[in-house]
Amino acid sequence: DAGVIQSPRHEVTEMGQEVTLRCKPISGHNSLFWYRQTMMRGLELLIYFNNNVPIDDSGMPEDRFSAKMPNASFSTLKIQPSEPRDSAVYFCASRKTGFPYEQYFGPGTRLTVT
Amino acid sequence: DAKTTQPTSMDCAEGRAANLPCNHSTISGNEYVYWYRQIHSQGPQYIIHGLKNNETNEMASLIITEDRKSSTLILPHATLRDTAVYYCIADSSNYGGSQGNLIFGKGTKLSVKP
After folding, report:
1. Is the CB of residue B13 less than 8 Å from the CB of residue B77?
2. What whole-number distance in Å separates Cα of residue B51 and Cα of residue A64?
3. What are A29-73's pLDDT values in tens digits?
4. B44 vs A67, A94, B31, B67, CA distance in Å?
5. Residue A85 main-chain phi, psi, to 5 deg
6. What is the DSSP letter of B53?
7. Min CA distance, A16 vs chain B (Å)?
8. Nearest to B68 by CA among B22, B25, B34
């Protein structure tokens, strides 16, 4: 299995631009998670989906952030407009329903907003 | 989910056992203890989990005290590649509780030295 795939791996953009991060979960996994990691705040859960349905988006910082999962094999996290404080590493993770319950993380997207 | 407490950092000599402690004094009966690690610039990686009994897999061993208020992750023969941040998490996913939205703390930064 290829594992969780994220693209792009690195993104540099200017303040005010729209940014779209992409994730392909492991085939057969029913749940998908988006995390953000910064030095100051550590690893934070932004949103997660079960069977393509958003379950908890309480971690999404602002209305500038939105996430979609149109099908079981693809999800996007969009920031519009982007701001310098959005600079972070964004991780996508997936897991399957049923035992065992561990999450599998992708390699992350390093976002820099100038 | 119960709060966990870990030392900020630890050192270990290469080839020796690394014992990483975790306190979870408020853990409830249906919460499992999960361990993940994050090697620099990579996504977190699942290591092991347990409920009551000690567990062992190809990566590590997990020792949980009888009262379940603390646990120790053991890397039997640490190598330089085990240098990472190790996270201990109490989660009730196995009972369908938290749906798997893991709460990552600061973790323990383990440095394996030659």
Report:
1. no
2. 40
3. 999 999 999 999 999 999 999 999 998 888 898 899 999 999 999
4. 21, 12, 20, 28
5. -70, -10
6. S
7. 27
8. B25
Pairing label, strands A109-113, A10-13? parallel
Averaged pLDDT in 10-residue chunks for chain B of 114 residues: 89 97 90 93 93 93 95 97 95 55 88 96
State the nearest Cα–Cα gap between A92 and chain B, in angstroms. Answer: 9
Q: Report CB contact under 8 Å: B100, A31.
A: yes
Angle at A67 between CA B90 and CA B101, to 5 degrees: 5
pLDDT in tens, A80-96: 999 999 999 999 999 98
Sign, Cα dihedral of A60, A43, A14, A23: negative
Backbone angles phi, psi at B31, to 5 degrees: -95, 130
B-chain CB neighbours of A95 within 8 Å are: 100
Residue B63: CB atoms within 10 Å: 16
